[in-house]
Amino acid sequence: MQENAYIKLVPASKQQTISIDEVKDLFHYYKDITNKTGSQLGWQYGESAFPYTIEEKSHAKGQWFYLNSNDKMRFRYIMVGVDNEAGSIPYIQVTLPEGFTHGDKGKANEFCKFLAKHLDAELHLFNGRIMYYYKRK
């Protein structure tokens, strides 16, 4: 059974719109900073922190992409997409498709928290809880 998490860009967020290319850039940034951490520590932390490749299918039409892993024992894949709610609130949807592993869910939670913190957004986790990464009054 698939599970979903949402990163919503609320009025207090750093930006009010997001594109799929911007989300890809954030994943590349995440991969870059974890590789730098690994080089400082003297081991391949980047491979462990981001065991996925970004793949976009032709029928995705710029709305979503896969994070696909080569290590099929521990990780398989995660889907990431962007859309707008009815009230025109933009959000990033992170989906764990059927057949996901515990490793996928752990990494998806980690990625969701990174994205929400970087964007000062509202994070709706897979378990239904909400985390607020923006300044509230």
Automatic annotation (TrEMBL):
Pfam families: DUF1885 (PF08968)
Origin: domain of life: Bacteria
SUPFAM superfamilies: Rbstp2229 protein (SSF111171)
Stretches that traverse the bilayer: none
Stored InterPro entries: DUF1885 (IPR015062), Rbstp2229-like_sf (IPR036294)
Protein's name according to its UniProt entry: DUF1885 domain-containing protein
